[in-house]
Amino acid sequence: MIIEYSIIIVYSLALLLIFMYALAQLNLLFNYLKARKKEDTSEKFDFSNAEEIPFVTIQLPVYNELYVMKRLLKNIAKLAYPLEKLEIQVLDDSTDESIETTAKHIKKIQEKGIDIQHIRRSNRQGFKAGALKEGLKIAKGEFVAIFDADFLPQKDWLLKTVPYFKDAEIGVVQTRWGHINRNYSTLTKIQAFALDAHFTLEQVGRNSKGHFINFNGTAGIWRKECIYQAGNWQGDTLTEDLDLSYRAQLKNWKFKYLEHIVTPAELPVIISAARTQQFRWNKGGAENFQKMMKKVILNNNISFKTKIHSLLHLLNSSMFTCIFLVAVLSIPMLYIKNENEDLKIYFYALSFFVISSFIFFICYWYMYKNIYGGGIKNFFKYIAAFFTFFSIAMGFSLHNTIAVLEGHFGKKSEFVRTPKFNIKTIKDSWKTNKYIKKRPSVHVILEGILALYFVFGMYSAFVVGNEGGDFGLFPFHLMLFIGFSYVFFKSIFSKA
User: Fold this and answer.
1) Which of 64, 266, 446, 487 pairs as cysteine with 395 (C-beta 3.0–4.6 A)?
2) What's the CA gap between 73 and 62, in Å, rounded?
3) Can you tell me whether residue 291 is helix, strand or coil?
4) Is 241 a catalytic residue?
5) pLDDT tens-place string over residues 326-358
6) With contact defined as beta carbons under 8 Å apart, do 321 and 10 qualify?
7) What does the DSSP 8-state code read for residue 94?
8) Which CATH class is domain 44-303?
């Protein structure tokens, strides 16, 4: 019975944490809906007065981006802003032939009278954070806009964002990510689904009530003074953007999130690239929880509610660990439930936590409706999208749990950037991309085994107990089987 009770306790605690996270999401939804009804009355610079237009530096941190550099530089060179108050820094840590091609593109732009510099380092110390910090030393701008290599800001992006810095307390302006290849595949659709939820109800829900949000690493602008006052860029976590965001807000800097300004970007189109990105984001989230937890709790300048939202925000990636535990333990729990009549009341009470799924369903529906519109037809499309997303997200739970545990236990690893492809339509090919990881991780084998494990879970529904089976967890196990099978087969066969 010790083993059985241990399983019950761990399973129950994981469900409880998921439920708490779901309640926080519901609160953010309420905040989001209220915020959408309010008119933005923010102070803004008057750009009709040349004296109010500040100097801006654009930083482009890149590393071996052979396929997208031309597209990136061509797009950035089109940004509308007074040339005498704009400089562009290409922070190029590359080690391949892209160095030469990038230099050629930069020279052509310089010939147009644009102040653009090709900044190279002798090493990658601090990775992206180190490159940004190095560029900041010589940046002329009072404000620093940052774009990753796969982002394509609209021509008027600076004209729409920089004016919000008239409020001297604002340290960061962040815009919403768009997706130029959203409908390329099932993989890109589920990535877009998850990111849309973050960039609507989460960012707006937190920012509208003064809770901590994060600069998303790109498609935003920093006040240089804010970066320095918060302690500058630091490379001791894999999510340097989240780290600096929290340090800045703990110093009482305000963040301004602009949902209505969309900055298009390219989503990873192959699962190995998505896995790389997910690992970095989830491990970095756990690292930042360890780094920031005490600072948030002990800070006397933020409210109790903001502290709760901040801790859950920092624990966001750790929810994958809870999901993974619930998934793996759900099959033993099925047998424990049907072999212990005296525990039936407890299991009935435990079923209350299924409400977490309904909360997520409701929250994401408002996000989906905001982007695609309402109506019965779109609602049924949403149901399919929601269950596809949840199934595949659970299929990533082992991979992301390993990342989270490494983050919490302090295992250091290299910053592995996500390969870019320059792909917009299904006709574009990724198979010749030289940056693709050719050999799948050993974890993929475990994901294949887990897919079979949840086949056993579905079989168990028919044979447990004395009353013709127990099918309460069958849909859950079916989704887990689909999710782990998708991740396994895509990881094995979707490679060059």
Assistant:
1) 487
2) 11
3) helix
4) yes
5) 999 999 999 998 888 787 777 777 777 889 999
6) no
7) -
8) alpha beta
- CA dist 363 and 374 (Å) reads 14
* Separation CA 397–CA 447 (nearest Å): 9
What span, in angstroms and rounded, lies between the C-alpha atoms of 123 and 134? Answer: 11
Q: Find how far residue 429's CA is from the centre of its chain.
A: 25
* pLDDT digit string, tens, across residues 6-43: 999 999 999 999 999 999 999 999 999 999 999 999 99
Given the structure tokens 């950035």, which residue do they identify? 76
Torsion on CA atoms 408, 412, 416, 417, rounded to nearest 10: 60
pLDDT in tens, 394-431: 999 999 999 999 999 999 888 877 777 776 554 555 55
Environment class of residue 108 by beta-carbon count within 10 Å: exposed (0-12), middle (13-18) or buried (19+)? middle
The question of whether 93 is a catalytic residue gets the answer: yes
Give the C-alpha distances (Å, rounded to integers) separating 398 from 55, 262, 395, 488: 46, 32, 7, 11
pTM check: above 0.90? yes
Q: Which amino acid is at 211?
A: H
Which entry of 93, 148, 243, 470 is annotated as an active-site residue?
A: 93
Quote the CA–CA distance of 218 and 234 in Å, as a whole number. 16
Which one of the listed residues 92, 150, 241, 243 is annotated catalytic?
Answer: 241
With 0-12 / 13-18 / 19 or more C-beta atoms within 10 angstroms meaning exposed / middle / buried, residue 443 is middle
CA distances, 165 to each of 55, 146, 341, 424 (Å): 12, 16, 64, 34
Structural domain spans, the chain = 2-32+317-493, 44-303
